[in-house]
């Protein structure tokens, strides 16, 4: 991998990982091209910032769980070709029950040039440190619908509070939220603003 990238585990050995695109539990229903190991890779700058977030949350009895980090361009291209195969809807019920898969790009739920491929974007949630259970965010990771938007108002007080804890912790250490997905964050001071990498995750 390029010199300025690292495995997140090197910076945060205790972090929880559930690398969804390595396996089949994702919106395509199958492993995604470019993921050969269930590891999380980020630029060193983003990994260091995330280390600060994790330390800060641990003091409150919480921790991070990562679903996706650096994403090779070939994975993004795989998402694009998947979206064009209209009758392949094996994971629709769980991930995009009310939407037509061909619209997921134009609705902003998947990008054809993704911040993830620049190496400083991460998809993640909060877990309780005592039982490792995910906090209720009102919608699961990669649920494509309005309910995943930050400004969706029909959530319980607890769900709003949980999203706020994550958003404020990430913001404190330099990550900006994405209005359409509560789980997606990009380091503001990312080192590669225009480079989309394509090395394999392994
Ligand atoms: C697909 C989802 N996890 C995600 O990361 N979406 C944004 C828009 C992206 O593809 O960059
Ligand atoms: Zn994302």
Automatic annotation (TrEMBL):
UniProt KW keywords: Cell wall biogenesis/degradation, Dipeptidase, Hydrolase, Metal-binding, Metalloprotease, Protease, Zinc
UniProt: Zn(2+) binding residues: 116, 123, 184
Q: Name one Pfam family in it.
A: Peptidase_M15
The keyword NAD is annotated on this UniProt entry? no
Kindly list the cofactors needed: Zn(2+)
Q: Which reaction does it catalyse?
A: D-alanyl-D-alanine + H2O = 2 D-alanine
User: Could you say which enzyme class this protein belongs to?
Assistant: hydrolase
Give yes or no: UniProt keyword Hydrolase.
Answer: yes
* Superkingdom of the organism of origin: Bacteria
Residues forming the catalytic site: 181
Q: EC number(s) per UniProt?
A: 3.4.13.22
Note the Gene3D superfamilies from the entry: 3.30.1380.10
Can you name one GO molecular function term for this protein?
zinc ion binding
Residues flagged as site, Transition state stabilizer: 71
Which terms does the UniProt entry file under GO BP? cell wall organization; proteolysis
What is the cofactor note? Binds 1 zinc ion per subunit.
What the record says about family reads: Belongs to the peptidase M15D family.
What this chain does, per the entry, is described as: Catalyzes hydrolysis of the D-alanyl-D-alanine dipeptide.
For this protein, the record's HAMAP family field holds: A_A_dipeptidase
Official protein name in the record: D-alanyl-D-alanine dipeptidase
| Organism encoding this protein | Sphingobacterium puteale
Taxon lineage: Bacteria, Pseudomonadati, Bacteroidota, Sphingobacteriia, Sphingobacteriales
């Amino acid at each position: 991998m390029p010199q300025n990238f690292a495995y997140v585990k090197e910076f945060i050995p205790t972090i929880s990982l559930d690398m969804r695109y390595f396996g089949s539990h994702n919106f395509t229903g199958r492993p995604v091209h470019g993921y050969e190991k269930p590891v999380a890779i980020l630029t060193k700058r983003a990994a260091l910032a995330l280390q600060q977030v994790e330390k800060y949350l641990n003091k409150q009895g919480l921790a991070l769980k990562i679903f996706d980090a650096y994403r090779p361009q070939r994975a993004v291209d795989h998402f694009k070709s998947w979206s064009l195969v209209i009758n392949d809807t094996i994971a629709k019920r769980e991930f995009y029950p009310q939407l037509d898969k061909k619209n997921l790009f134009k609705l902003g739920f998947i990008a054809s040039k993704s911040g993830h491929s620049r190496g400083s974007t991460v998809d993640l949630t909060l877990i309780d440190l005592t039982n490792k259970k995910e906090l209720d965010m009102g919608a699961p990771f990669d649920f494509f619908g309005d309910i995943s938007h930050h400004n969706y108002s029909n959530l319980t007080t607890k769900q709003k509070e949980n999203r706020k804890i994550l958003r404020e912790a990430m913001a404190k250490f330099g990550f900006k939220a994405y209005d359409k997905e509560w789980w997606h964050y990009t380091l503001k001071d990312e080192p590669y603003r225009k480079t989309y990498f394509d090395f394999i995750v392994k």
